[in-house]
């Protein structure tokens, strides 16, 4: 997010506000961002959400939990030799795997080397322990997870997080795919915070919208 005053930046601040309003009665500290299918913009949405929460003064940790096609190291221009997979296999600590970013109050944990068993690692006790440890250090923890309809990772992670944000792409995501993704998340007992509509163009500008609830 290069311009804090751009229409897109303003839309992400609206998304942030709406997310916060979904959890007025309970603390929302961990959230997952996913999509129904690939290439719908979930990683871009994840990064921008992390930025606007950090701009609010909160200590934010973005975890790239897409252990199949990770992108956070490209987005934040950092190396990916040590990351989430190293922590989950006890080859590194939380502190060793977290890296600062150019944005104040925002840290990133990249995926680390791609493992042969992503679902098993994400569903392990180690993942739960990592999140519990991170909660002591950060105000908001945002996880980028693989698409719901492709693999089970997002469903596995949804049990560990306070809520899930589903990203759909205007003109690309089929209605049935979005509905199926929602059903799979609900069957995993996920709390769906809302949906971000990505790539919706109005007056030649790219906007992001948030629809609260289900």
TrEMBL record:
PANTHER family per the UniProt record, alphabetical: FERRIC ENTEROBACTIN TRANSPORT PROTEIN FEPE (PTHR32309:SF13), TYROSINE-PROTEIN KINASE (PTHR32309)
MF (Gene Ontology): kinase activity
Gene3D superfamilies (alphabetical): P-loop containing nucleotide triphosphate hydrolases
Pfam families, sorted: ParA
The name this protein goes by in its record: CpsD/CapB family tyrosine-protein kinase
SUPFAM superfamilies named among the record's database cross-references: P-loop containing nucleoside triphosphate hydrolases
Domain of life, per lineage: Bacteria
Assigned keywords, A-Z: ATP-binding, Kinase, Nucleotide-binding, Transferase
Claim: Phosphoprotein is one of the keywords in the record: no
